[in-house]
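Listing S7. Sequence submitted for prediction.
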Amino acid sequence: MSFKQWLNEHYEERGPMQWLAFFLELISSCVLFALMMLTCIDVVGRYVFNSPVRGGTELTEFALAIIVFSILPVVTWRGGQIVVDLIDVWLSPFILRVLAWLAAVLMSGSLYFLAWRIFELGERNLKRGVVTDFLSIPTGYLMIYIAVFSWLTAAGVLAYKLLALRPDTKRRTD
């Protein structure tokens, strides 16, 4: 089986979105593997050699942020968010669609403005030279990364809702 066949079989997206989803999942899984290795090395170093990895906590924090924010647009694009439907049985389908659109616009707008503020803080941290305590890693780059991927997620929320309107779609319509 070729890589292209495997990709088409395992990814529902098509075109550039398929490659973007694969790339973002690849980033997330590689960083997760590195985090697992870091944890193993830290545990062995701590309990066997009495010497933990210096800056391991900082690296773990950075890795978790990279994992979460690189996979968030894919989860959003696929509609994998948790949905609580306690009142759906009492509301009409029209009201449910309106509420779903209201939720999508609210989530997208919130992510957009939150990302905008995080981006500003990241730029400010870069200008001021703010770094982590042990490893002296500039924190501004990670904040800008979080902002960019939050913007991608905001776009993904709206794109998911727009695709859910298409009658030929096999996606779940919230």
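Caption to Listing S7: primary sequence and predicted structure tokens for the chain studied. The longest helix spans residues 93-128. DSSP finds five helices and no strands in the chain.
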